[in-house]
């Protein structure tokens, strides 16, 4: 087999393309990350690549695990020394057979001692050797991530080995788990791997808090227990994001509605954890009705702790915290509309308090409602679609126009000084403007005088 060598790789005997890039090239998948194993001086090879690319070498890892990275416009190159006496020995110590192939950079020969090409054809994730998971427990999650991303199956022996060691994932550094986890969630096929993670115990190794959702009964509005509901929500959201069903705004994909602060992986992460506060807030009243008062706030605090444990960035943490804390807001608006009590000002206040994440929140809320298997799911979807249209077509353009009055007006016209009242007036005027109830500056000033008289 002959593969065209990526740009900048020097002609050198004993130099091999290895791992994921070989797998992707064989599958015809685009790749910009090239791993190279050198029989000899890896540092010298890395210097040659950096020189040809006009880049520099960054040294990563410690003794015995040194990797030389070169970042170029054409892709990233990681160069390391072959581990063991030869390339076959190196490959037979890797994680999965589809990652345990190499290509001689001069001859184009494919080296495949573990049968990786056959497993590619069979769409199978299989461990190379029995100790693969013991050597690095992150491989437990990586097996599921690769199955999700490639839409492959996991062979039975590998799955059994994974199940028997699932608790080991808790020993892995949080940031390494987070990276594999989010990559898995970004796949269109991650829902079935979430189920596999649960059945093997791996899900609880990462999120022990989720175990309490199993067998946690809910109120009469739900057919499922808290865990089954969560999985149903996740499946619906995955379909919404990857199949655009149901779509939320005509003319664009649902993924186009997501705020740049999040993304496909993060909103799925939030959906999986959105009801995590239910077990600790569950109560039963005198009539036997089940309640979960403040489970949104309790869950958001738990999510924050989980995200810190997994070393999420502040931006990622704030995004998921917000979605979990506010996931009931759209439902409250829907209940008001059903009672014919929903006012324009209330919708405007919702947009003000949830922007710029209003579409993200409505996406998740639509999946949440559908996950109840309620007869009113289609009605809620219509309601949420209408709110997305209002946000994009009315609220967002209006929010970009100048305010009718400013703090300077309050100082110069009414001799006010910055205070809680000062801020309250500005917020109220802006809310009325965005609701379309104040059209111009004169109306805003007249309304300000009324507010001051009431406070007077």
- By CATH reckoning, the class of the largest domain would read Mainly Alpha
Q: Helical stretch count? A: 22
- Second CATH tier, the architecture of the largest domain: Orthogonal Bundle
In one word, what is the shape?
globular
Return Rg in Å.
28 Å
Total of domains: 4
Poorly predicted ranges (pLDDT <50, ≥5 residues)? Answer: none
The residue-averaged pLDDT reads: 92
CATH topology category name of the largest domain: Hypothetical protein af1432
Name the strands of the widest sheet in spatial order: 3-4-5-2-1-6-7
Strand percentage: 5-15%
| Structural class label | alpha+beta
| Multimerization status | single chain
Helix content: 40-55%
| Major sheet characteristics | 7 strands, mixed
The end-to-end span amounts to: 86 Å
Count all strands and give the number.
11
Structural features, described:
The chain is an alpha+beta fold. It has four domains: 15-116, Beta Polymerase, domain 2, CATH 3.30.460; 132-206, Hydrophobic Seed Protein (Orthogonal Bundle), CATH 1.10.110.30; 208-399, Orthogonal Bundle (Hypothetical protein af1432), CATH 1.10.3210; 407-455, no CATH class. The protein has 22 helices and eleven strands. It has helices spanning 20-27, 42-53, 87-91, 116-121, 132-135, 138-150, 156-164, 174-185, 190-200, 202-206, 226-243, 264-273, 278-281, 295-309, 314-325, 329-338, 344-354, 358-370, 377-399, 407-414, 420-434, 441-455, and strands at residues 15-18, 33-38, 57-60, 67-72, 75-81, 102-104, 110-111, 124-125, 153-154, 282-284, 290-292. Strands 3-4-5-2-1-6-7 form a seven-stranded mixed sheet. A hairpin with a 2-residue loop joins strand 4 and strand 5 (75-81). Helix 6 runs parallel beside helix 8 (174-185) and helix 12 packs across helix 15 (314-325). The longest helix is centred in the C-terminal third of the chain and has 23 residues, at 377-399. The radius of gyration is 28 Å and the shape is globular. The model has no long low-confidence stretch (mean pLDDT 92).
């Amino acid at each position: 087999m002959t593969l065209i060598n990526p740009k900048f790789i020097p002609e050198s005997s004993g130099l091999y393309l290895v791992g994921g890039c070989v797998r992707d090239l064989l599958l015809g998948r685009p790749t910009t990350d090239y791993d190279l194993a050198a029989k000899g001086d890896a540092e010298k090879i890395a210097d040659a690549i950096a020189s040809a690319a006009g880049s520099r070498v960054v040294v990563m890892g410690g003794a015995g695990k040194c990797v030389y990275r070169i970042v170029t416009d054409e892709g990233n190159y990681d160069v390391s020394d072959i581990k063991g006496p030869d390339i076959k020995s190196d490959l037979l110590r890797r994680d999965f057979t589809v990652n345990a192939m190499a290509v001689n950079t001069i001859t184009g020969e494919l080296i495949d001692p573990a049968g990786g090409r056959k497993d590619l054809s069979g769409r199978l994730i299989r461990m190379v050797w029995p100790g693969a998971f013991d050597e690095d427990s992150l491989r437990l999650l990586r097996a599921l991530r690769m199955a999700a991303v490639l839409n492959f199956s996991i062979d039975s022996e590998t799955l059994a080995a994974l199940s028997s060691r699932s608790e080991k994932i808790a020993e892995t550094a949080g940031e390494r788990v987070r990276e594999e986890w989010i990559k898995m969630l970004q796949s269109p096929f991650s829902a079935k791997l979430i189920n596999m993670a649960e059945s093997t115990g791996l899900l609880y190794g990462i999120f022990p808090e989720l175990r309490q959702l199993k067998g946690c009964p809910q109120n009469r509005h739900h057919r499922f227990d808290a865990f089954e509901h969560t999985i149903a929500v996740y499946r619906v959201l995955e379909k919404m994001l990857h199949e655009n069903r149901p779509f939320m705004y005509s003319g664009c994909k649902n993924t186009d509605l997501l705020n740049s602060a999040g993304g496909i992986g993060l909103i799925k992460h939030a959906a999986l954890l959105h009801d995590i506060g239910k077990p600790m807030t569950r109560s039963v009243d005198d009539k036997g009705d089940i309640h979960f008062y403040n489970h949104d706030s309790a869950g958001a605090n738990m999510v924050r702790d989980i995200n810190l444990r997994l070393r999420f960035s502040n931006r990622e943490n704030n995004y998921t915290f917000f979605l979990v804390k506010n996931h009931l807001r759209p439902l409250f608006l829907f209940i008001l509309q059903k009672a014919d009590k929903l006012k324009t000002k209330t919708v405007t206040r919702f947009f003000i308090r949830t922007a710029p994440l209003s579409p993200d929140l409505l996406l998740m809320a639509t999946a949440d409602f559908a996950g109840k298997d309620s007869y009113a799911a289609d009605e809620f979807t219509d309601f949420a679609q209408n709110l997305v249209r209002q946000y994009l077509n009315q609220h967002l353009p209006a929010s970009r126009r100048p305010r009718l009055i400013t703090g300077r007006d309050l100082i110069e016209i009414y001799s006010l000084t910055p205070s809680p009242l000062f801020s309250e007036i500005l917020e109220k005027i802006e809310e009325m403007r965005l609701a379309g109830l104040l059209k111009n500056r004169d109306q805003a000033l007249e309304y300000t005088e009324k507010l001051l008289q009431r406070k007077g």
